[in-house]
Write a structure and sequence with these properties.
Layout (H helix, E strand, L loop, with lengths): L1 E3 L2 E3 L8 E2 L3 E4 L2 E2 L5 E5 L4 E6 L2 E2 L3 E6 L5 E7 L2 E6 L8 E8 L6 E15 L8 E4 L6 E11 L7 E4 L8 E6 L5 E9 L7 E7 L2 E10 L7 E9 L2 E7 L8 E8 L4 E8 L6 E5 L8 E10 L8 E6 L6 H50 L6 E4 L2 H11 L17 E3 L16 H22 L6 E3 L5 E4 L26 E4 L13 H5 L1
Parallel strand pairs: 6-13, 14-20, 29-31
Antiparallel strand pairs: 1-2, 3-8, 4-5, 4-7, 7-11, 9-10, 9-12, 12-13, 13-15, 15-18, 16-19, 17-18, 19-20, 21-22, 22-25, 23-24, 23-26, 26-27, 28-32, 30-31
Helix pairs in contact: 2-3
Main location: membrane
Pfam families: Ig_3
InterPro entries: Cell_adhesion_signaling (IPR051275), FN3_dom (IPR003961), FN3_sf (IPR036116), Ig-like_dom (IPR007110), Ig-like_dom_sf (IPR036179), Ig-like_fold (IPR013783), Ig_sub (IPR003599), Ig_sub2 (IPR003598)
């Protein structure tokens, strides 16, 4: 706001909203509303729709010719649509529409007219084979579907057939779609000379060719073949031909040496279809002669087809025996290989389990340094032997306590050698222990000196040598250590394998003389 000459003025910003009418251009030429554009089939078609507005409008380009469809739509002031090669199907009415909130829609329509030459509409659905009788009043009605724009003219329609100057009659009718038509013609068949091929031309351009055959004579089937697919059986097949205008069937006969005997009457599946016949069981190794005819209610084909087939022979007994022998031997070999593989797998698995078990057992023993074993010690025998051998001197005080601790010095050579034999009975081990103690005591008594297996150190502790070495007669390396004497622990003493017996010092000669 500002003042000027005692007046106040304000600047105001206006946002004007509007929606203009669409502007359409075809092939870069702007057209008037409701105008029509002429193009030829195969030409490029470029369509443009422009609508000004604020805010930006929505623009839609559509084709409305019985089958409404949207070609393109966008929120913009312009859209473009291109058809590289126009066809008759592109002809019709087009519409450009602009819409915006608060305004009524703006539209402009225009037409596209595509010029097309006359051509067959759908050659795959067109009937091209006809059957007819002959006579002065006999005519064959033929309806040919075509595409054309502009519509076909009757004066340009021409039929050419076996006879010249053919007196045909033709007319044109429109289908549901503007550019599709029917060319309807009536062709006379005065006698047998009028049967054959007929060619339709429009403005001397070929459109289609049809065939008119005699209705009372069906065509001879084609590709009549046969083969023996198994011992005693054959297979026959052929392709059906024109039925002559009436429903046809096939007669299959077999020559028995004197005459033809009918063996089958087979219906016609349709022209161009394959017909298959499989025989009943026949004599193996024998040759058979077959004949085929096509017939309708009027007559049969003028010609017949024949084929000779030799039935497969059964395999000989020796061949079957050889085959059975080969199959049996192969089966036996396969079974033997499977058994060997199975046994090998079991042995390998057992060996692996034993190896794993031994490793785990060795690791358990190695990881347990404080394993406690018990050695057989007969204290009464030890005291008796000591008295006899005069092992206890005046310097060693007497110990009558039965709970005195005795230590066994054991030299552990290997892990496996430290395991006591589990095969010996408990009684045998007790006897062996007693025997060893008695032998040690006897040896000490004979020498009159201290036994080497029992020594006393300065701590007044008696040490004995105990050998837990494995007996050589036992070869089982997997046996676990067994503690003997578990039933009566009073006769066993604790053995500490973590200690070594101290060196026994030699006594002075004076003390020995005393």
């Amino acid at each position: 706001m500002y003042e000027h000459n005692h007046r106040q003025k304000w600047n105001i910003s206006l946002d004007v909203q509007y929606l203009d009418n669409p502007v359409v251009s075809v092939n870069d030429e702007v057209g008037k509303p409701h105008y029509e554009v002429q193009i030829r089939e195969g030409d490029e078609l470029r369509l443009s729709c422009y609508v000004r507005g604020n805010p930006v409008p929505n623009i839609t380009l559509s084709k409305d010719n019985g089958d409404f469809r949207i070609l393109q739509s966008n929120r913009s002031d312009r859209i473009n649509h291109t058809i590289d090669s126009s066809q008759c199907s592109d002809m019709g009415t087009y519409k450009c529409t602009g819409t915006s909130a608060g305004f009524t829609k703006r539209e402009q329509t225009f037409g596209i007219n595509v010029t097309c030459k006359v051509r067959i509409d759908n050659p795959f659905t067109m009937k091209t084979l006809y059957g007819s009788k002959s006579g002065q009043d006999v005519k064959v009605i033929v309806a040919v579907p075509v595409i054309a724009n502009p519509p076909p003219q009757k004066s340009f329609i021409t039929w050419f057939g076996p006879m010249t100057n053919l007196p045909f009659i033709s007319n044109v009718s429109q289908q549901d779609i503007p550019y599709k038509y029917w060319i309807n013609s009536s062709l006379p068949i005065f006698d047998q000379s009028y049967f054959g091929n007929y060619n339709l031309k429009y403005n001397m351009t070929d459109v289609i060719t049809i065939t008119i055959n005699a209705e009372d004579v069906p065509q001879v089937p084609s590709n009549f073949t046969g083969y023996s697919y198994a011992s005693g059986y054959i297979n026959l097949r052929w392709v059906s031909g024109f039925d002559g205008g009436k429903p046809q069937y096939f007669i299959l006969s077999k020559n028995d040496g004197l005459e033809w005997v009918e063996v089958a009457n087979i219906s016609d599946p349709g022209e161009g279809k394959v017909v298959i016949f499989e025989s009943k069981r026949l004599n193996a190794g024998q040759q058979y002669w077959y004949q085929l005819k096509s017939c309708n209610i009027i007559n049969c084909s003028k010609e017949s087809l024949e084929v000779k087939i030799t039935v497969k022979a059964e395999p000989t007994q020796s061949f079957l025996q050889n085959k059975t022998f080969v199959v049996g031997v192969s089966s036996a070999v396969v079974i033997l290989l499977l058994i060997i593989a199975f046994v090998s797998i079991i042995l390998k698995r057992k060996t692996a389990l034993n190896r794993q078990y031994n490793q785990q057992e060795g690791e358990e023993i190695a990881d347990q340094p404080d394993v406690v074993l018990y050695a057989v010690v007969d204290k009464s025998a030890l005291i008796e032997n000591q008295n006899k051998a005069d092992l206890v001197t005046e310097d060693v005080p007497e110990k009558n306590d039965d709970s005195d601790t005795l230590y066994a010095v054991v030299e552990k050579k290997t892990t496996t050698e430290a395991k006591p034999s589990a095969t010996k009975t408990e009684s045998e081990q007790k006897n062996n222990s007693k025997k060893e103690r008695q032998e040690g005591a006897t040896a000490a008594e004979a020498t009159g000196a201290s036994a080497t297996s029992r020594n006393m150190n300065q701590d007044e502790l008696i040490y004995i040598d105990v050998d837990f070495a494995k007996k050589p007669e036992n070869q089982d390396k997997n046996e676990k250590p067994k503690i003997h004497g578990e039933e009566d622990r009073t006769e066993y003493t604790f053995v500490d394998f973590s200690k070594k017996a101290p060196v026994v010092k030699e006594k002075p000669k004076k003390e020995e003389e005393k």
